[in-house]
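Input chain follows. Return structure tokens only.
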Amino acid sequence: MAANRRREKAQETRNAILESGLRLFEERGFNAVSVEQITRDAGVAKGSFYTHFSTKSDLIVAEFWVIDDYYREYSERNLRRYSTAGEKLIAFTRAQMRYVRDVVGNAKLKILYANQTSEPGSAKVITNRDRQWHRIVKNIIVEGQGSGEFRSDLDAERLTVHVNRCARGVFLDWCIADGSFDLVKEGVRTMHEWAAAALAR
């Protein structure tokens, strides 16, 4: 019982740090926020930050995994209702774009993308192929290739990279445009008119 409570308390502390950090990044910019400011805002000791995270950038990485959890839950609950791989790809794209528009928001997405492009090195969570986003799209493509719906001259991994680059392009344009266009409408249109069309046999 006591061990469960300690785990719950640790998770509450981690969530408080994550929420405070992401909100402060939106308000002040990533570089203008210190670990001390984050923990003070979260109402926890500064040392608690380093129990859960190594750097401020870890907060950004953690948010991508939160987004991925939504993608996994959505696909497990909903994709089986669609009969074709093409329908699944469009449905998943619509769910992605809606979640980012309505839950993540333009300001937070800008922070996520800015961090991922400014951090040194090429190993970034935004392009990590172990993410649920990559796995879900790849599974859809494998299904479409197996049924003869999608082209098979390129392997599923390569096609998944192409499709996800297309989706990231829509997200980036939405950031650049300061959220001035309907992310869901344009994301689905781009997937339907460009990526899904390129997948077809």
